[in-house]
Specification:
The protein is of the alpha/beta class. The chain has 13 helices and 19 strands. The strands form 4 sheets. It has an 8-stranded mixed β-sheet with strand order 1-18-19-17-16-13-14-15, with helices on both faces. A 7-stranded mixed β-sheet has the order 4-3-2-5-6-7-8, covered by helices on one side. 43% of the residues are buried. About 12% of the residues have low confidence.
């Protein structure tokens, strides 16, 4: 199945089975940022769950069906999907694209048209206003926006990251053109002067009630603490590139709460947030309870604490922190105490460092050198001494490393494991914890891995409300 077909299937499921609501955002019909704002959040969860289950049900490989997988033992309805506490204002990063007069996101079904946004509800209301004012200042300075069709212009994106302290990192994604160096420098210094030291809080009269209802958690003022210029002169349309210069702080700090808990609650009231309008309210569904049985749990004793992460402009980091923390608790519950752990596709150590708290040793492998450097910094920053990070491809590491590990953690990109799946079969892990942002490629990988490991459990995690995307967590145990 193609990813686009899966997205279409979720949409068709919603249209055919659920009632609509009035979208919160005035740009919803034209903007490509959101797909499902016109459906209630609990219905989005149901449709995503049903269509994702079909991906695994449709697998026909005999060795997969014989792997003691509960999906094929009349337990399909027991598969759980865990919803976000916030269906809006959950993202930690946005990449706003620019055109001659417009600032926003790609228009629906278009690669070159930009929907000029006056609001964006999946991100912080106040942070959005700050970034838009910076864009307006760039126009005053005659910094030319990039044209995707003609490949002319200079400023491609203004990206922004926001942490739980409401601190912002602003990222100017540009072409390589020294003629604009002074203007970019002036724009960065203007941004720090106006939004780095002074309080910023914006309220639009017509949205005042929505602001009160949807942004209760934003009590602190927005503050710009870091700015970067990164260069991308390639024809490919990406918001990442080579770091050229930065102003203010080098890193943005994020905190992940590590919970030493056997049970995590995700309630329906958390899942769909406060109602937008009275006529849009729905009766909540039953609470979703995630229980980690004692026979599965051998977690080391430690107090609830926070792991701090230093994040840069090109760093991959989770978008939905509150739900990811619950997902992380689930992962921790699946890892027995005092084991040696191999974490492939480790990024900046987002899973490696929390897991190190209950493990004898953790080795993280990542092919992006910048992420590995951040991972090492984060280990040192958190005084973690049993986590080690290697810059290498997954294939090379599996081929060349002779070290044995008890547990394997996987969090690959959307393409999945590819050829690495066959190489993993040569190893002797007692358990595999496989987190995927693409259930389609995960299902293909599980067909291969199930030759040696039983797929014991899969749960779905909706880290991206209003979109067709979700994460899938698979737990595999070695066959006896």
């Amino acid at each position: 199945m193609k990813k686009r077909k899966f997205h279409t299937n979720v949409f068709v499921n919603l249209v055919e089975n659920f009632e609509k609501r009035v979208p919160l955002c005035s740009h919803f019909l034209k903007c490509g940022g959101c797909s499902f704002q016109d459906f209630f959040y609990q219905d989005q969860l149901k449709a995503k769950k049903e269509e994702t289950i079909k991906i695994f049900e449709n697998l026909t490989f005999q060795n997969f069906r014989d792997s003691n997988f509960s999906f094929f033992k009349n337990e399909v309805e027991k598969i759980e999907i865990f919803g976000s506490e916030k269906e809006f204002d959950y993202r930690t990063r946005m990449d706003f694209v620019l055109s001659e007069n417009d600032f926003g996101l790609r228009a629906k079904r278009s690669f070159d048209k930009v929907e000029n946004l006056s609001e964006c509800h999946i991100f912080s209301f106040d942070a959005f206003q700050v970034v838009k004012k910076i864009f307006e200042k760039s126009k005053e300075l005659e910094i030319l926006p990039y044209n995707l069709k003609t490949h002319t212009g200079f400023l491609r994106y203004i990206s922004v990251r926001k942490n739980e302290k409401n601190e912002l990192m602003i990222i100017f994604v540009t072409k390589n053109d020294k003629n604009f160096d002074e203007k970019i420098d002036e724009l960065a210094n203007w941004s720090l002067k106006n939004y780095g030291n002074e309080i910023f809080r914006q309220t639009q009269n017509e949205n005042e009630e929505i602001v009160q209802n949807k942004r209760k958690d934003q009590n602190e003022s927005i503050k710009v603490v870091s700015l970067y210029q990164i260069e991308n002169s390639e024809l490919s349309d990406t918001s990442f590139g080579k770091i050229k210069k930065f102003w203010g702080k080098k890193n943005l700090e994020f905190n992940l709460k590590i919970q030493n808990s056997k049970s995590v609650m995700v309630s329906s009231s958390d899942c769909h947030g406060e109602p937008v309008e009275a006529h849009q309210q729905r009766k909540p569904f039953n609470k979703l309870r995630m229980t980690f049985p004692n026979d599965k749990l051998e977690m080391g004793d430690f107090d609830d604490e926070k792991i701090k992460f230093l994040i840069g402009p090109n760093t991959f980091f989770q978008q939905n922190i509150s739900l990811f923390e619950k997902l992380l608790s689930k992962i921790l519950s699946e890892i027995p105490n005092e084991r040696s752990i191999l974490d492939l596709y480790c990024g900046v150590g987002t899973i490696s460092l929390p897991v190190s708290k209950i493990s004898k040793k953790v080795v993280g492998v990542e092919s992006v050198s910048e992420s590995i450097e951040r991972a090492k910094e984060n280990a040192k920053f958190n005084e973690v001494q049993n986590a080690f990070f290697v810059c290498d491809t997954t294939d090379n590491f599996l081929e060349n490393s002779n070290e044995n590990f008890d547990i394997l953690i996987l969090d690959p990109p959307r393409v999945g494991l590819e050829k690495s799946a066959e190489k993993i079969l040569k190893r002797d892990f007692e358990k595999i914890v496989y987190l995927s942002c693409n259930p389609i490629t995960q299902a293909k990988d599980l067909e291969i891995l199930s030759r040696k490991w039983n797929v014991e459990e899969i749960t779905f995690w909706d880290l991206y409300p209003q979109t067709p995307h979700l994460e899938s967590l698979a737990i595999l145990k070695k066959k006896i």
